[in-house]
């Protein structure tokens, strides 16, 4: 993988089964629809909180800024033939000084292995853009599928909250994290 002259990942990528396009303002309605899908809201971390178009538009603005600032961000995941939006995913430094992985999918796109595919592309590009920044994922303890996905792409469990039951946070990373980095990540993703 080769970054451009400014050290940026491509905004349009094709993986084995999906097309990835950098998130734009045109994706707001799909982001709202996926964020409101009750089939997955209970297990996501951080909780999906996109009650309306303005909240989704604010997220899109932050993602566009992340692409400009960091050279990588979230992609809209599309079926390459129909161009139907299947989900959103990638990694960014929006909330912490790590490449934190993110993936959300329409219920109809879940269970097909697309999350691991998108997360692998994100990890590969994160390491190409800035290999000194750790790749991480913060996941609720009950989200076994997401834990499986991030372990498939090479992340290992580096922290688990001592309490909180199913709502406890588990932090996965591609390397050991310095205490300050872990504290910053936990502060960016509060347990409640």
Alpha-beta classification: alpha+beta
Query: Terminal Cα separation, in Å?
Result: 38 Å
Count of alpha and pi helical runs: 6
- The ordered string of helix (H) and strand (E) elements is EEHHHEEEHEHEEH
The CATH class: Alpha Beta
CATH topology: Aminopeptidase
Domain tally: 1
Percentage beta strand: 15-25%
**Strands side by side in the biggest sheet:** 1-2-3-4-5-6-8-7
| Helicity level | 25-40%
What do we call the CATH homologous superfamily?
Gcn5-related N-acetyltransferase (GNAT)
Shape: globular
Low-pLDDT parts are: none
- Under the CATH scheme, which architecture would be assigned? 3-Layer(aba) Sandwich
Number of strands: 8
Secondary-structure blueprint:
Layout: E1 12-14, E2 19-22, H1 28-35, H2 38-41, H3 53-70, E3 74-78, E4 85-92, E5 99-105, H4 114-129, E6 135-140, H5 144-152, E7 156-160, E8 169-173, H6 179-188
Parallel strand pairs: 5-6
Antiparallel strand pairs: 1-2, 2-3, 3-4, 4-5, 6-8, 7-8
């Amino acid at each position: 993988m080769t970054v451009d002259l400014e050290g940026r990942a491509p905004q349009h990528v094709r993986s084995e089964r999906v097309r990835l396009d950098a998130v734009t303002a045109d994706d707001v309605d799909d982001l709202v629809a996926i964020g409101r899908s009750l089939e997955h809201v209970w297990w996501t971390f951080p909780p999906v909180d996109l009650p309306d178009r303005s909240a989704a538009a604010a997220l899109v603005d932050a993602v566009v800024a992340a692409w400009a600032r960091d050279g990588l961000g979230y992609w809209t995941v599309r079926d390459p033939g129909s161009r139907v939006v299947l989900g959103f995913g990638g990694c960014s430094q929006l909330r912490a000084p790590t490449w934190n992985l993110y993936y959300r999918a329409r219920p109809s796109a879940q269970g097909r292995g697309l999350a691991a595919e998108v997360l692998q592309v994100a990890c590969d590009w994160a390491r190409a853009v800035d290999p000194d920044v750790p790749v991480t994922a913060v996941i609720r303890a009950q989200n076994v599928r997401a834990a499986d996905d991030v372990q498939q792409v090479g992340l290992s469990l580096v922290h688990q909250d001592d309490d909180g039951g199913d709502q406890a946070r588990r932090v996965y990373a591609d390397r050991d994290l310095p205490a300050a980095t872990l504290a910053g990540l936990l502060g960016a993703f509060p347990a409640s």
